[in-house]
Amino acid sequence: MSSPKTATVNDEIGLLIRAKYPIIYIVSYEERRVQQQLRLIRQEVIKQDREKKQKQGMPDNELKKWEETGRTLYYWSCTRGFQVLSKKEIPGQQDGGPSKTYERLEVVEPVLNPVEALQWTMKKETGIFVFQDLHPFLTPGPIEHSIVVRGLRDVASHFRRAPSSTLILLSPVRVTPPEVEKEIVVVDYPLPSAAELEEKLSSFESGIKNQYGPESITFNPNEREEFMQKAVGLTYEEVENVWARALERDGNLGFRNIDEIIEEKRQAIQKSGLLEYYPAVEKFDGDVGGLDGLKDWLRQRKSTFGRETQERKLKLPIPKGILLIGIPGCGKSLSAKAVAAEWRVPLVRLDVGRLYNSMLGKTEENFRNAIKVVEQLAPVILWVDEVEKGFPQSSGAGDSGVSTRVLGSFLNWMQEKEKPVFVVATANNIEAMPPELTRKGRFDEIFYVGLPGQKEREEIFVIHLKRWGLILGDEDIKSLAVRAKNFTGAEIEQVVESSLWTLSSGSEVDVMPSTEMIIKVLETEIQELRPMAQRLKKDNEAYQEMHRRSQQLARPASGKEHKEQEGFPQYVEYDDWRYQQSG
């Protein structure tokens, strides 16, 4: 059974072959899988041709001869020449066991030069000629490039008149010289779907259990489905590597190996060079204080993300993404990381600045390549940090419109994307963002992440104190949170970490300080730290206006129960702030 996407592509390739398209360019890393699918496509094409020739009145003896010789599938590479698939039979053992038949590729014409190989195809009356990795010869450069391109044009012209011949270029890289781009139709072959991966595991299951024992596969039905969904975006070989590694390590394959799927995707991300992989370490429970409104919204959509089918009467859209705006240090980036841990999918960071290149057209190409990698690895979280710096409101004025075109490509992709890629964009300054990014419908939701309220500050203190093995009572935590009013989460973290060094000085490090000492040091650190809200007093009016606009545009990430989201506090002098904190 093939997934609808793969079946549709196979049908399209078969239609192109029957319609006598001379050159088909299949873009795929999975050479072995495409080879297998091409054999099935060939069988279907021959079936369709047979029905057509029967209607035309071809005699049975000629029809049989045509079926045996028509549309032979040839595979060419610059290291082996032309090969065809042949069947070999291994006799049974002396005890009379059954013989076995297996298939292998055998060389039929050892021509390695690509120009000579193209000429050889035109000598054959009929055939499907699969040229593997011809793209280096199509890249502009040496004189051989021009000869190969000319050869392709000759083949295209000849095959348009041939009875039933097709040239297929199979390569992981798309290179289409302008001289032949009108002769070529490009097909991007999809990676295996969850259904195909499930079928693959089912075909291996009996062999795995024979080798590793009947309890070697430990999924329950729901876990098995989710495991396959998370593996979408990898090739057959990559998924098989995960299975083999898990089985060789402890003889067991189960849901706990889902982290190895994510690790395999991390390897693919690193190879791209345009994206950064972040391990999903931080979690909502235990690492993110407050932001209950954002947490509830994300948990509500967890079950629908990355699912190809929904067995529900009420169909639900695939979540597209969120925009987090607000004050620096209040948990926007931390939330992006926690989403990946909560949904158990990889987190990929797109550094827009890394895309830019001085070469004409290279920036746009880098963006397309980055998005292609992300979509191949879906389901995935795409984190675009400080999006207002990557796509500033005044972009395009001094860079010949490059940033404007990249922004347009990003917005168009956000609107049209079908793959389960959940975008988490963060921004500090809404005034610097292009209005196109903040219009309703671009993201599923826009959240405002402001200064934490009293309850949230208590949670943040508990998280950071617990991380370093410091335990305080509820009343002590509440008192510290009151003193730390108008502190960001990052500033509370800094207070706790600075206190650790003060507590360790002048005493034995392996001796736990008293509760009174811990509280005293924390209060001193709170007193001495000047929060960002006060340091920005010179721009207070501008920041107040900016965050008022943010609150009007966005939904509060803290939820309705937290009312302490008032932007930056209005203080006059630093001494006044010290007095208020100590009082």
What value does the average pLDDT take?
Answer: 80
Contiguous low-pLDDT stretches (5 residues minimum) are 561-583
At the first level of CATH, what is the class of the largest domain? Alpha Beta
Number of helices: 25
Portion in beta strands: 5-15%
Overall 3D form: elongated
**Helix content class:** 40-55%
CATH overall fold name of the largest domain: Rossmann fold
- The count of domains is 4
Protein structure class: alpha/beta
Q: State the strand order across the main sheet.
A: 4-3-2-5-6-1-7
Question: Could you characterize the architecture of this molecule?
Answer:
- The chain is α/β, with parallel strands linked by helices.
- It has four domains: 4-188, Rossmann fold (3-Layer(aba) Sandwich); 194-272; 278-449, 3-Layer(aba) Sandwich (Rossmann fold); 454-582.
- The protein is 50% helix and 14% strand.
- It has helices at residues 4-18, 31-55, 60-69, 114-121, 135-138, 143-161, 194-212, 221-231, 236-250, 258-272, 284-287, 292-301, 332-343, 352-355, 362-376, 387-390, 402-416, 435-438, 454-467, 474-483, 489-504, 515-528, 532-535, 540-553, 574-582; strands spanning 23-27, 73-77, 81-90, 100-109, 126-132, 164-171, 184-188, 275-278, 321-326, 347-350, 380-384, 421-427, 445-449, 555-556.
- A seven-stranded mixed β-sheet has the order 4-3-2-5-6-1-7, sandwiched between helices. Strands 8-10-11-12-9-13-14 form a seven-stranded mixed β-sheet, with helices on both faces.
- β2 and β3 (81-90) form a beta hairpin.
- α15 runs parallel beside α17 (402-416), α19 packs across α20 and α21 packs across α22.
- The longest helix is centred in the N-terminal third of the chain and has 25 residues, at 31-55.
- It is elongated and about 100 Å long.
- The N and C termini lie far apart (72 Å).
